[in-house]
From TrEMBL:
CDD domains: RPE. This is Ribulose-phosphate 3-epimerase. One of its GO terms (cellular component) is cytoplasm. Pathway: Carbohydrate degradation. It holds the Pfam family Ribul_P_3_epim. It comes from Limimonas halophila. Coiled coil: none annotated. Catalyzes the reversible epimerization of D-ribulose 5-phosphate to D-xylulose 5-phosphate. One of its GO terms (molecular function) is D-ribulose-phosphate 3-epimerase activity.
Length: 221
């Protein structure tokens, strides 16, 4: 495994009754960033949290808040999440009429911009905006729920993106999200991912297990 891999626990699998404590616990356990899944019951068939919750989490950690926006239309909410304390805002191309404009809104808000590819979204949509993003997120499940099975087809997309990022000399992180545990994470890193999002496999077993769970992901086994 590359030793530059970063681990981003998804708080979707945390105890929602004590999210602040959960964020502190995974930070203490070695997390590199905190992945926050925002779902609207429209773009995806589930509802989670909004900017108020992101703002409430902000004082609990200095780690980057990696906010994955699964909401449509997304543009009006970008300044609200930036103001709340997000460090990275990642959007889906299908969530607005003009991807370039949405990415510009994110940058204008002073935060890093990411683009997320659903399993059925072609890599070409991300290649088109590699100069405009700080992160590409490859979904390895259909967005909406944690605890799903890793979809193998993500690996070829990661490999293609890695080649394009390296060939173009882009300073872009390549993140994979969905069904990541030690074994699938290792394969994603081999394909070229450098950020692993993991919900179920980090939060399983409760706080006493978080350090070992994160270490297992980092070690790839
Ligand atoms: O974006 C997501 C779902 O839409 C989540 O980040 C993802 O599913 C993480 O959960 P798990 O590791 O349990 O698959
Ligand atoms: Co996510």
């Amino acid at each position: 495994m590359q030793n530059t891999v970063r681990i981003a626990p998804s708080i979707l699998a945390a105890d929602f009754a004590q999210l602040g404590a959960e964020v502190r616990a995974v930070a203490d356990a070695g997390a590199d960033m905190i992945h926050v899944d925002v779902m609207d019951g429209h773009f995806v068939p589930n509802i989670t949290i909004g900017p108020q919750a992101v703002g409430a989490l902000r004082p609990h950690t200095r780690l980057p808040l990696d906010v994955h926006l699964m909401i449509a239309p997304v543009d009006a909410y970008i300044p609200m999440f930036a103001e709340a304390g997000a460090d990275i805002l990642t959007i889906h191309p299908e969530a607005g009429p003009h991807l370039h404009r949405s990415l510009q809104l994110i940058r204008d808000a002073g935060v890093k911009a990411g683009v997320a590819l659903n399993p059925a979204t072609p890599v070409s949509l991300a290649l088109e905006v590699l100069d405009e993003v700080d992160l590409v997120l490859v979904m390895s499940v259909n967005p909406g729920f944690g605890g799903q099975k890793f979809q193998e087809r993500a690996l070829a997309k990661i490999a293609e993106l890695r080649r394009a990022i390296d060939a173009g000399g882009h300073d872009v992180a390549l993140e994979v999200d969905g069904g990541i545990k030690a074994e699938t994470g290792a394969r994603a890193v081999t394909a070229g991912a450098d950020v692993l999002v993991a919900g179920s496999s980090v939060f399983k077993g409760g706080p006493d297990a978080y350090a070992a769970n994160i270490a297992a992901l980092r070690a790839g086994g």
